[in-house]
Design a protein that fits this description.
Helix content: 40-55%
Largest sheet: none
Distance between the termini: 21 Å
Oligomer: single chain
Number of strands: 0
Order of helices and strands: HHH
Strand content: under 5%
Shape: globular
Structural class: mainly alpha
Number of helices: 3
């Protein structure tokens, strides 16, 4: 499995403690699956997304 969660169960495990309600986790997962990064950033709040300050890959 890659660094990003791909299933609902993976997403729940990797985001444990971030959401106070299952509905909020579900909404975030829908944005994540749609690759709506701006929507997810707005949903999560300032400074919460993207993870790792936007780090996405490394070149060798």
């Amino acid at each position: 499995m890659g660094l990003m969660a791909t299933s609902w169960n993976d997403f729940q495990k990797r985001s444990k403690g971030l959401f106070n309600k299952n509905k909020k986790a579900s909404d975030a997962y829908k944005l994540f699956k749609a690759k709506d990064w701006k929507g997810l950033e707005d949903f999560m709040g300032n400074g919460s997304w993207p993870p790792n300050q936007g780090f996405t890959n490394i070149k060798k």
